[in-house]
Amino acid sequence: MTDHKIEEKERSKRIQLEIATFRNKKELGLHSITDKLSIKMSFPSKKVYDRLAESLKSTFHIEHEVLPKDEEQEKDEYLQDEPIEKKDNSKAPPVLYFSYYDYDEILRFFTEEHEDVSFEPIPPFVFQVLDHYENQIKSFKNKSKKSPKDYDLSLRLPSNLYNNILPFQKEGIEYAISRDGRVMLCDEMGLGKTLQALGIASFYPKEWPMLIIGPCSLHNNWRRELNTWIDAEWLKKHMGKEFNFTGDSLDPYICIVDSSQGLAKVIEETRENPKKYLVYIISYDLASKNAEDENSDAVKWLLDFSIIITDESHMLKNDGSKRTQNIIPLLRSAKRLVLISGTASPSRPIELFTQMKALLCGPKSKKTLLKKTEFGYRYCDLKTNFFTGADYRGNRFLSELNLLLSRSIMIRRLKRDVLTQLPPKRRYLTYLSLPDEDIGPHRLTFENFNQRKGKNLRFDPNDIEILQKFNLTAIAKQKTVARYARYTFKKGEKFIIFAHHRSVMNAIEEEIKKEIEEVEKNEGKKLKFVRIDGETPVEQRHAISQEFREDPDVKVAILSIAVAGM
C-alpha cells in the first residue's frame, strides 16, 4: 500500500473539524457573509459519535445537530455554479455544530481528555484570515457611523456611474470599500464587474493615477467604459487642480501602453510630468516582461501605483509561470487592488492561491496571511513523493474555502441570485483592434472604397467590387476574431458565435480546437464544440443544436448567419 493510500485510510478514521455555517431553512446551500460562523465536527463513524456525543453535549453548547436523514450534500459554490445531485446520506454519522468561539476548548477536550481519539484540527491561518477581516470590517463600520458623508457613495462616485448601478453592484462596491479596496470581483459574466471596479477606484480619487492590467483584446473596451462612466464634472471636482484637468472627456488622460518602446516613452514623459495621465492600461505579458529586472525604471514605475485593477485575473493562476512571479509582487504593493474574474478557479483550488496571496496581506500590507504548503494541505489534498514532488491537484474542505473567500476577499453573485434586479436584456459592442500585419495589405483598397462611399453613390448588393471588399474584411479580421473566440472559450461558459464567411468560421474552429487540446492536456477535460454551416445536412442540424443545449461539455456553437436563420 502506497504512502498516499495509507494516509487516506488514516484520515478516514479521524474526526474532522472545519469552519462552517448552518441555516434552519432547507435548500439554502449558499453561504452568506452575514451567517453565523460555527465549528463543524464530522465523525468518521457512528461508533465514534456514540462514544463521544454525551460527553461533548454535557461540556459544550451544541448549536445544531444534523441527523443522517436530514443531512444534505453541500454545494461548493466557488467551483460549481450548477446544482449537483444529492447523495444518499442515510448511513452517514451525525454532524455537530459548536460555537466558533469554543474552538480552543474543543482542542483541549481532545488533547487532554481524549488523547486516544484522532482528529484533524483547523490550521491557524484560517482563523488569522477570518479574524483579520472581522476586525477590518468592524473598523469600517465604526468609521462610517462617525463620518457618514465620507462613505456616502452618492457623494463620492461619478454621478453617471452612481445613477446607473444596480443594488447588487452597489453592495459589491461597499464590500470592497469595507476591505480597504482590496477585493476579488467574481460575479458571473454580464453582471457588471467592470462598472463595479470603476466604482471602487472612483472612491479613492486622491490615489489616482491608476493602472489597469488585462488582455490586449480588452484595452479598447476599458477605454470605452472609462469614458462612459467617469464624467467630466467628477473629474474637474476631484482632479481639476492636481492634474490640471480640462475638457469634457477623460479620453486624453488615458494611456494605452502597447510595447516596451511605448512603455519607455511613457516612463520618460511621466518623469517630466507625473500628472500627464490619469489611467494607464497595459497587458499582462508586457507588464511581466518589463518587471523581470527589480532595479529597472519600469519596475519602479509599476510599483508606484496605489490603485491597480487586473482584468481576467485567472491568467495569474499558475504560480510557477514567469508572468505570475513577476506580476504578483506588483499587485501586493498596491494599496488598492481589484482582481476581476468570472472564473477565478476554473478547475482546482490551487488556482486560487496566487490571487488570494496577492490580496491577503496583514495590517501593514507587507506580510501575507497565506502560505502555499498550509493552503495545499488544507484545501488541495497536498501529496508529496520523491518522484513527482508536490502534487496540488486535489481538493478538500471546499465549503470552508468558499466561506473563507466570501468572508475575506471574494464576492460572487450569479445571474439567478440577482435576477429580479436585472433589466430584460443588455447588448454590448466589443471593439477589436486589428494588427497592422492583418489589415496592412488591404489598407489602400479600403481607403479607395471609403472615398467612393463618401461620394454618396448608391450601392448595388450584386456589385462585384462590393462583394470583393466584403470578403477582404473577413480576411483582415479572421485572426483577431478567432483569437477573441478562444479567449471567450477560456471563460468556461457556453456561448454562440455567428459568422458569415466560411474563412472566418474556419479560423474560429482552428483556435477553438487548439484550446480544447490544451484543456485536455492540462486538466484532463474533454470539451467539445459544434458547427452548423451550409455543408451541414439539414436532417442533422436539429440534433446538433440539441447537443449544444443538453451536453455540458459542448461549450461553443459556431453558426453560419445564413443557415442559422439570423
Describe the structure in your own words:
The protein has three domains: 11-120, no CATH class; 159-415, 3-Layer(aba) Sandwich (Rossmann fold), CATH 3.40.50; 436-560, no CATH class. 44% of the residues lie in helices and 13% in strands. The chain is built from 22 helices and 17 strands. A hairpin with a 3-residue loop joins β12 (383-385) and β13 (389-391). α7 packs across α8 (193-202), α14 (322-333) runs parallel beside α15 and α20 runs parallel beside α21. The radius of gyration is 27 Å and the shape is globular. The chain starts with a helix and ends in a 6-residue tail after the last strand.
Task: Please name the defining characteristics of this protein.
566 residues, single chain, globular, Rossmann fold, 3 domains, 22 helices, seven-stranded parallel β-sheet, alpha/beta, five-stranded mixed β-sheet
